[in-house]
């Protein structure tokens, strides 16, 4: 796609994100989208933490879920669902996070996507990987339910 | 444990949940805890939905993450972390959910936990399984990071 | 199903297992099948071990893969594939194993299945859980590839 | 590491593989090892197939298990175990496979590893991704069992 087409795609994808009340509640932004990739950013806000002052694991899982969904959607189109995902937690998230998802392979009806979540460490100013995941996105089959 | 001990454990566990700002944001309740099990309830509120009016997948992932963590904690104690989890999505969640987690097996330093999430279907009034998962809980090893 | 119908189902399922050369190579037996469940047994043989004398993790993964596939097939029929699975390893397998799979929920086109693998511990004579898993079985969609 | 050091590492790693009777049974080769990566190759042999003439899913799971284990071991050393893994199956494997694993991130006691499995398609002569996975490798904690 041209840069212009990419920009339009990102804009449309952000409208989908903005139509998700839970994404608005979390304050997530979609800052990259297209060509089998997507990047979700989540701020480090007090209401997103767990009892030790780190981002809650559920926030990281949300970011992975949505990043793999958008990455898959950039290949399969908007009528998709996340069939499943794996989340591995590696370190506490001490700052805002980026969830970066990349399609590994896609068939006509599904996409396998990997995702890495990095956080800005407030102690060192460095970005570290705090979680990683893998997911499968499927075209919605209206007859399957 | 006696019924009284169970009740105390549930109370203490609910204080941990109440100390998680993200759990308060979501409005989660811990309604069962102890003996290798835990049950997290999440209401069906407008701010927790995705663009089609179902609970967002990230909300289900949050519930699984926390239910397996508390179930593991009921066996291993409070100094734990979720090492990883798997979430499989089966149906859209059209009502409030229960995430029910059960320890499969535990060693001195870790627990394997399974979890099923059911939702009250607003069309039928019946409870259906909307997601299932599996997770590993580990004792926090301060030297590992 | 009647006991007779169950017996027939187990017999047919064992013919499918016998038609899998890799299952013959491993020496796996299907000893329970039907109603959303399946049990695969694998012997403790020298050629199935890893370098420390335990059953190789790949053998446990094979057993989980096949047990969840047969459990799913008992609900969805024979034209199925394993879409994905998770394997968590808990302890070394020091003896023959049983992989016991149970369907959690099924739609018309897929089934979610959990599985636990236990081994007879040659030191204690007791059965311990050595691995657990979760998988998704899907009806084969010939148009999807 | 220098090329010579890499070559030695690969040689030592292949001796570990050769000490795994199950890897010998399967006929697996380790053809790349070091710097957080490993590549396992498995031939397309009659005894490794399932009932439709494709490599059995358990063979792919074996390859992922071992590739992530060696990739993790290249960072953490030989006293490791696979804590868990996820396998997603994308297409039937119609020829010999390569399982290529890469460490995503590592702490002092664990490594997160991703893996992709590709097969030579006997119909087209092209290499296609047939499975992907994610695993966690941990240093063996002798006191944990």
Strand and helix layout:
The structure is a homotetramer of 145-residue chains.
Chain A: H1 3-18, H2 21-26, E1 29-34, E2 37-42, H3 57-76, E3 80-89, E4 97-106, E5 110-120, E6 127-139
Give a quick precis of the structure.
The structure is a homotetramer of 145-residue chains. Chain A is α+β, with helices and mostly antiparallel strands. Chain A has helices at residues 3-18, 21-26, 57-76, and strands spanning 29-34, 37-42, 80-89, 97-106, 110-120, 127-139.
Task: Explain how this protein is built.
Four copies of one chain form a homotetramer. In chain A, strands 1-2-4-5-6-3 form a six-stranded antiparallel β-sheet. The mean pLDDT of chain A is 92. The first copy, chain A, is an alpha+beta fold and 145 residues long. The first copy, chain A, has helices at residues 3-18, 21-26, 57-76; strands at 29-34, 37-42, 80-89, 97-106, 110-120, 127-139. Chain A has three helices and six strands; from the N terminus they run H-H-E-E-H-E-E-E-E. The interface between A and B is large, with 37 and 37 residues. Strand 3 of chain A pairs antiparallel with strand 3 (80-89) of chain B, so a sheet runs across the interface.
């Amino acid at each position: 796609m041209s840069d212009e087409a990419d920009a339009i795609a990102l804009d449309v994808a952000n409208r989908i994100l903005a139509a998700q009340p839970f994404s608005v509640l979390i304050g997530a932004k979609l800052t990259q989208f297209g060509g089998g990739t997507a990047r979700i950013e989540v701020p480090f806000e007090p209401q997103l933490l767990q009892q030790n002052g780190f981002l809650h694991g559920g926030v990281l899982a949300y970011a992975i879920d949505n990043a793999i969904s958008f990455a898959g959607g950039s290949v399969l189109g908007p009528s998709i669902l996340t069939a499943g995902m794996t989340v591995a937690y590696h370190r506490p998230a001490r700052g805002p996070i980026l969830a970066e998802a990349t399609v590994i392979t896609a068939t006509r009806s599904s996409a396998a996507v990997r995702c890495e979540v990095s956080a800005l460490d407030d102690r060192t100013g460095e970005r570290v990987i705090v979680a990683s995941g893998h997911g499968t996105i499927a075209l919605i089959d209206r007859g399957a339910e």
